[in-house]
Design brief:
Layout lengths: L1 E4 L6 E3 L23 H8 L9 E9 L9 H9 E10 L1 H4 L4 H20 L5 E4 L2 H12 L1 E7 L4 H16 L8 E5 L16 H7 L27 H10 L16 H9 L17 H12 L8 H13 L5 H13 L4 H15 L12 H23 L11 E4 L2 E5 L9 E4 L6 H4 L3
Parallel strand pairs: 3-4, 3-6, 4-5, 6-7
Antiparallel strand pairs: 1-10, 2-9, 8-9
Helix pairs in contact: 1-2, 5-6, 10-13, 11-12, 12-14, 13-14
Length: about 450
C-alpha cells in the first residue's frame, strides 16, 4: 500500500537504479571559480597524446573519493604541467563522520594500496589528519604550489569543505601568488552542454551520447619533501580522531609506531582474499584488486579454479537478492571511494562482452547477466551524477538543491514549502533513522 502526500517541509528524493529520473532545476550559482577549468579540459585533451611544457612550481593533488592512479584526469594534468606533484589525502572529520566502521576499514585498505603504488614510482601519498583547510594551506606553503587539483563534487557536505578550502587559500598570503584550485571530472558520457540534458532517463538513452575512454596512469615525478610524509593511521586511531573532531595541525601526522602487531597480523591473514572478512561482501583493496574482482564477476558463467574467484562467485550468489543486485553489493564501496572509476568499469564490461562475441555488440542485449548488471548499474549511477551536477547550475525553483548520499545512492532535498512536488512513500524501502545515518 502506498500513500501520496505533500510535505510542507524538506523532503527526500531517492535516486535508485530506475528509469524514473528526478526533475531538473535551475540553480543560482554562488560566487565561485569555474568548476571545470581549462586545465581540466586540457587533461582530457591529452587523451589523444597531446602535451604541454611543464609549468614552474609545484602542484598538490587532493585525493578525496578518487583513490586511484588509473583514469585520474587530475593526476594526469598535474604530472603533465608540473615538475613537482604532491599527492595528498586528509582524514577530515567533515568528510568521514558518516562512514561506518566497514567503510573506514575499506578506506584504509584502499589508501594503503594507493600509498604503496605511489611509492613504487618514487612518489608518495602525504597523509594528513585534521582540517583539510589548514593542512592543504600548509602543504601549499611548504612546496610553493601554484595549483591544487581536486575532483569536482556534487554532494553538499563535500562542496562545503571545498568552499572552505577555497576561502582559506584566498585569505592566505603567498609570496608567489594565490594558488589556483583546479577541478576535474571523469565522465562516462561526452556531454558538451549539461543545460541540454534531457529530463528523463528514456530520452537520455535515446540520445546515444558517445562514451569516453579511461586515461592511462601517468608517470609521476620523484617526490622529495623535507617534512614527515605521514603513515596511515589504524582504524581505532581514525575512529578516535573522528570522535574527538580534532583540528590541531600538530596532530596531522600519525606515526607508524602506533600500528600494533595484531593489526599487521590481521592484514597478513586476509591478504589473499578480496574481502575484509569471511562475512563481508564488499570488495576491499586498491585498483588492481578491484579490477581482478571485476574480471571474476564478469566471467561468472565461465567457472574458475582460482580460490579467490570462487570466493567472489559465492558472494555473488549470496548478494543476488534481485536481478543485478550483486554488482552494487560487491563494488558499491569501491566506486564510492573512487578506487575504480565508473567509466573504467563500463570499459572493462564492454571489452569483455566484445571478446565473447567476436568483437561485436548485439542490439538485443548482452550475452552475460553480469555484464548487464555492471553496465546497467554504471549507466544509472552516471545518469544520477549528471542530474546532480546539472542541479548545481540549473534550478527553476526558489530554493537551492542539496545533494546527499544514502547507502551509496545519490539523493536530494527536493523542495521546501507548500509549492513542492507530491512525494510518494512506498512501504519496504527500509527508510529509518538508524539505517539512514550509516553508509
Amino acid at each position: 500500500m502506498a500513500l501520496v502526500v505533500r510535505f510542507p517541509a524538506a523532503a527526500l528524493r531517492f535516486s535508485p537504479s530506475s528509469p524514473a529520473a528526478p526533475h531538473c532545476y535551475r540553480h543560482r550559482r554562488r560566487h565561485r571559480k569555474p568548476l571545470f577549468s581549462k586545465a581540466a579540459v586540457r587533461a582530457e585533451a591529452r587523451r589523444e597524446g597531446g602535451g604541454g611544457a611543464a609549468a614552474s612550481g609545484a602542484a598538490v593533488v587532493w585525493f578525496k573519493n578518487d583513490l586511484r592512479v588509473d583514469d585520474h584526469p587530475g593526476l594526469v594534468a598535474a604530472a603533465a604541467r608540473h615538475r613537482i606533484v604532491v599527492p595528498l589525502y586528509v582524514f577530515d572529520p567533515r568528510l568521514l563522520s558518516d562512514y561506518s566502521d566497514v567503510m573506514l576499514g575499506l578506506l584504509l585498505s584502499a589508501l594503503e594500496d594507493l600509498k604503496e603504488l605511489l611509492k613504487s614510482q618514487g612518489s608518495d601519498l602525504i597523509i594528513g589528519l585534521g582540517s583539510a583547510d589548514d593542512i592543504i594551506a600548509n602543504i601549499v606553503n611548504e612546496v610553493k604550489a601554484s595549483h591544487v587539483f581536486a575532483e569536482e563534487e556534487v554532494e553538499y557536505s563535500l562542496r562545503n569543505v571545498i568552499v572552505n578550502v577555497e576561502t582559506t587559500l584566498s585569505a592566505s598570503t603567498f609570496s608567489w601568488g594565490s594558488p589556483e584550485l583546479v577541478f576535474w571530472r571523469s565522465p562516462l558520457y561526452d556531454i558538451k552542454n549539461l543545460m541540454e540534458l534531457p529530463e528523463s532517463y528514456d530520452l537520455f538513452l535515446k540520445m546515444r551520447a558517445p562514451t569516453t575512454v579511461p586515461l592511462a596512469a601517468p608517470i609521476l615525478p620523484v617526490l622529495n619533501m623535507e617534512s614527515n610524509q605521514g603513515a596511515l593511521p589504524t582504524l581505532n586511531e581514525v575512529k578516535k580522531h573522528l570522535k574527538e573532531k580534532s583540528h590541531q595541525v600538530d596532530e596531522s601526522w600519525v606515526s607508524l609506531k602506533n600500528v600494533s602487531a595484531k593489526t599487521f597480523l590481521r592484514k597478513e591473514q586476509s591478504s589473499q582474499s578480496m574481502f575484509a572478512s569471511e562475512n563481508a561482501s564488499e570488495v576491499k583493496g586498491g585498483t588492481n584488486v578491484v579490477l581482478d574482482a571485476l574480471a571474476a564477476y564478469l566471467r561468472y558463467l565461465e567457472g574458475t579454479a582460482r580460490d579467490d574467484w570462487q570466493e567472489l562467485h559465492e558472494k555473488l550468489r549470496k548478494t543476488e537478492s534481485r536481478k543485478g543486485a550483486s554488482f552494487f553489493a560487491l563494488f558499491g564501496p569501491a566506486l564510492k571511494l573512487g578506487v575504480i572509476s565508473r567509466r573504467k568499469v563500463y570499459y572493462e564490461a564492454i571489452k569483455y562482452e566484445k571478446e565473447r562475441n567476436a568483437g561485436f555488440l548485439s542490439p538485443f542485449g548482452y550475452s552475460a547477466p553480469t555484464v548487464t548488471a555492471a553496465v546497467d548499474a554504471i549507466c544509472s549511477m552516471e545518469w544520477y551524477w549528471l542530474l546532480a551536477l546539472n542541479s548545481q547550475i540549473c534550478n527553476k525553483g526558489m530554493y537551492p538543491i542539496r545533494i546527499w548520499r544514502w547507502k551509496g545512492y545519490i539523493i536530494q532535498y527536493a523542495a521546501v514549502g507548500n509549492e513542492g512536488p507530491a512525494i510518494l512513500f512506498v512501504h519496504g524501502l527500509g527508510l529509518s533513522w538508524s539505517i539512514s545515518v550509516t553508509i
